[in-house]
Design goal:
single chain; 387 residues; alpha+beta; 5-stranded antiparallel sheet; 12 helices
Length: 387
């Protein structure tokens, strides 16, 4: 949602009615407190006056929490712009690894311990890739799957195996990266091996389910892996990745109705030609499923490997550009650009323009700080006693 706009019904409205009756963790309660305080006087703000018509405009500060559905539009766009400068003049592939629903209990309960850094690193032998971890279902607002998407450029050679001859090298073309079936088998084996190790070390909690039975069920299935060239180019994939940097589960614009008891929102049914439909949930269930997507502290959703690794990226990318296309200009944002200027350039929304006369400029006359109420006290009011 562009800067300055607000939906008629927001997730904050639902949480305000329902979160007090839920059992939440500290991280969930903290995220809920930030969302409830976002763009209210609790976080401070400023008063601006139009220099032409005298209109007085009150602006409240946002929470900047990465889980907030209201914040993050500008940060997503700026992050995408920063990543575009890393693209090289080569063909890119988009890989999607989908984990079966039978493993849902592992990923819903174990958080950071089940980050997919291990299997992704063992599977790759490429110049560079970005991995993003997603946990959302568009219908039920719950985490039924985990999709680490990886954007890979074609490489001079990629690893392969041939029975009885040892490792060999596969050379991809512009329309072909590597054998889908081989990658499917290797990914399944590596991930199940990691989950079995967590069960053996008693680091995985699957609730009332039997972890070994869940692994056996997953081993019988053919895991869905998608390998394709992005039709709209690598730039489109970068902007797709940007959605993972901020916000979780559902956006405010998908909410249709909230009567205090049930919440109705839109979703697309992929099994029915991607048609848009409506689904209704009890407000408490909606809020609980939304908060299930709150990430552990310092959990990184997007990871870089190969020549895109932070320690070696700058020098190696410069060398690649020198060899491939030294005259290709980089897509960089103007230096020293303010957030207001970025919002005007990206969304064509001028936050400094008077919303009444549309001709004058808003001049800040006064500011006030956030409330002295500690966030820990707000969190404590949202966590039931004994939890």
């Amino acid at each position: 949602m562009p800067c300055g706009e607000r939906a008629a019904i927001t997730v904050a409205d639902v949480l305000r009615d329902q979160v007090a009756g839920l059992r939440t963790t500290h991280e969930q309660a903290k995220a809920a407190a930030h969302i409830l305080a976002c763009r209210t006087g609790r976080l401070g703000g400023h008063v601006a006056v139009c220099d032409r018509c005298g209109y007085t405009h009150f602006a409240y500060h946002s929470c900047r929490d990465r889980h907030c559905p209201t914040c993050g539009s500008l940060d997503q766009a700026l992050w995408a712009e920063a990543q575009l400068q890393h693209l090289l003049p080569v063909s890119y592939f988009h890989l999607v690894f989908t984990v079966p629903a039978s493993l849902r209990s592992f990923f819903a309960r174990n958080g950071r311990a089940l980050a997919l850094r291990y299997p992704l690193r063992r599977l790759r032998d490429d110049p560079g890739d970005d991995g993003a971890e997603g946990t959302t279902s568009r219908r039920a607002c719950r985490p039924p799957h985990l999709d680490p998407e990886t954007d890979l450029p074609p490489t001079p050679s990629l690893p392969g195996h041939r029975r009885g001859t040892g490792p060999r090298r596969l050379r991809p073309s512009r329309s072909y990266l590597l054998p889908r079936r081989v990658l499917q088998i290797v990914f399944r084996a590596k991930l199940l091996e990691k989950l079995e190790a967590l069960l053996r070390d008693r680091k995985a909690d699957v609730g009332r389910h039997s972890g070994h039975e869940l692994l056996r069920d997953a081993r019988r299935l053919d895991w869905n892996i998608d390998i394709r060239r992005p039709l709209l180019g690598a730039e489109h994939v970068v902007r797709y990745f940007a959605r993972y940097t901020r916000r979780i589960a559902i956006s405010d614009r998908r909410l249709v109705r909230d009567d205090g008891h049930r919440v109705t929102f839109r979703w697309r049914d992929r099994a029915d030609g991607n048609r848009q439909k409506l689904v209704s949930l009890e407000g408490s269930l909606f809020a609980q499923r939304f908060l299930q997507h709150v990430l552990p502290p310092r959990f990184v959703r997007i990871r870089r490997y190969g020549l895109l690794s932070n320690r070696i990226r700058e020098g190696l990318l410069a060398r690649c550009r020198e060899l491939l296309d030294p005259d290709r200009p980089l897509m960089l944002a103007p230096p020293g650009e303010t957030r207001a200027a970025s919002c005007r350039r990206i969304f064509d929304v001028d936050l400094e323009r008077c919303p009444k006369c549309r001709d004058g400029t808003l001049v800040v006359r006064a500011r006030w700080r956030a409330t002295r109420l500690p966030i820990d006290l707000v969190v404590a009011t949202l966590i039931p006693r004994g939890s």
